[in-house]
Amino acid sequence: MFGFNWKTFEKSGESFSAASDGGAHPPRRTGRPRIGLALGSGAARGWSHIGVLQELEARQVPIDVIAGCSIGAVVGGCYAADKLAELEKFARALTKRRVFSLMDISFSGAGMMSGGKLRDELSRELEERRIENLPITFGAVATEIGAGHEVWLRKGDLVHAIRASYAMPGIFEPLQIDHRWLFDGALVNPVPVTLCRAMGAELVIAVNLVGDVAYRGTLIADAAAMANEPELKPHETAQGREPDPASPRAAEARQLRRQFGRAANGAPGIAAAMLDAFNITQDRIARSRLAGDPPDVLIAARLSKIGFFDFHRADELIALGREAARRALNDIAEVAALEGQIHGFKPKH
């Protein structure tokens, strides 16, 4: 009942495992299936993954394998490293101003943001953690630039793997791992069911964050608004003093406005347009991949009213994630016949 068809996801060389461990899978556990969780991409909506994990944990549904893509790799990697509580604390503390402060302009030409501030936040909790030493089997999906290969990161530095998985083209600088330049995995596998099964999961629960997208232009209305500050006319400030237009912070704010905001005629800035186009694309790719290799249980949170850059709405997103997981509990129990096989598991009636 818990077996699966290897032919459904063997790609004859289309997928690669960076720093591969030879493809060895953990031995099957007796008495119950090995349960895998595939956490999908979706930018800020990914905070709902925290709620999903919390609800499954509260119901004592064990997770043996986690595969993550983009924000799913962030949450999944932190969970596998036993750092979910720290990530939740960070997410709930985010405000519009704090989100704005984490956006560091890149001058390398490889991306609009260097991602250095986000890297520092991850390194603070996950420094020197290696994927192969985590207590839970974990893998992240990335995309190789040029070749378009799907790359599975299953060994090596955890922070590097996470950063490669969320390096959105044109927004973040790409990462080089094992002589490959890598971008966001959502370009090839937004909800990595395939990777979950390849790492030994016999029952896969997938979380899709982009299936109910309502493209409402809610990415970033304006960089000044993200900073929780009013837009100022020349020679005006909230205190009546003229701002220093030559200050580095003022220059950075102007640059962010141009890239993430909208022009006077309402046209989106280049970054806003890229983000929206990227999200439309990953939605189409996710639909195709899930149709070709469906999970055993699909969790789809109701997130259409939350924008992809609403990182400051973690409280709502985590609650919505828990609600979505609760709705799926009976499906999990039915598909896997978990009643009596997992101690303490109580499906919702």
From TrEMBL:
InterPro entries: Acyl_Trfase/lysoPLipase, LysoPLipase_patatin_CS, NTE, PNPLA_dom. Residues 233-244 have a biased composition (Basic and acidic residues). Pfam families: Patatin. Residues 37-197 form the PNPLA domain. Keywords: Hydrolase, Lipid degradation, Lipid metabolism. A motif (DGA/G) lies at residues 184-186. The active site is at S70, D184. The keyword Lipid metabolism applies. A motif (GXSXG) lies at residues 68-72. Residues 14-33, 233-255 are annotated as: Disordered. The keyword Transcription does not apply. It comes from the Bacteria. PANTHER family: NEUROPATHY TARGET ESTERASE/SWISS CHEESE D.MELANOGASTER, NTE FAMILY PROTEIN RSSA. Belongs to the NTE family. This is Patatin-like phospholipase family protein.
